[in-house]
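Service request form, structural biology core

Requester: graduate student, group of Dr. S.
Request type: structure prediction, single chain
Budget code: on file
Notes: please return the result as structure tokens.

Sequence provided:
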Amino acid sequence: MRALVLYGKGKSRRRMRVRLAAAVWDVKAHGNPLMNDLKWYTDEAGEGFGMIGADFLVMAGEDVGRLVRNLRGPFAQHPCLLGRLAYIPRMPIDGCTHSFKHLAGVVLPAHMMRMREAMKKPMPMRTFLGKKNGPATIAKAIGLPGDFSGCYVLMDRGKGIYSGISRRVLSRLRQHAGGKSHNDASLAYSVAKRDQPHKLFRGKAMQDEKFAAAFDRAKQSILKFEVAFVEIECPVELYGFELYCSMELDTDQWNTFRTH
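Core staff response, request fulfilled:
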């Protein structure tokens, strides 16, 4: 958990507790309702106290600054009354400072809203076919500065059937459209395996004449699909959203999260 901790004794301790409660109320009043679940905290020695809660993870920088200023203001002339203000952080994974609660309840649903809007205006998968139609060319054509990290949804007649993620979405879609290996065109491989079941290793299967033909047919069918995508930079949000999106769109036929 994250906490704001103050150290003090006697009268100074009581004054700081009152001021901390007022400062938190001020932050909430300025539009941060996510502070509602904070709880009082006291350390084991009984000297440090303050507010603790996962919702500090979603405090905007200006809220933290306001909280600190409100605490320091009345005690500026009396440093001994302020004691020591400490901000105890949880170590973020890949720079993601959201709590899981905020991620699942706010961040991922917001990405899903963006994805549904993108799905109203999908692009043909054929856009990503051709040696001269590289990521930079495609990005320029659709008004983007370049390739990007994000999530994409392949669509068949308006329905999302497969979601995927990549640090370079445009490059990944080119692989789906024109890849020659089971690693590049992974969805085509899955479709081909459904039509031409086998118990071979992937590399061996690709050398099989009948399976190779099924693989080529699968790639041709994928070129008839459309695709929608959204940019998501944070790796934690990106991985979480792939699962969230797959479940929301019910893409169980082709999405799997089994590990190798």
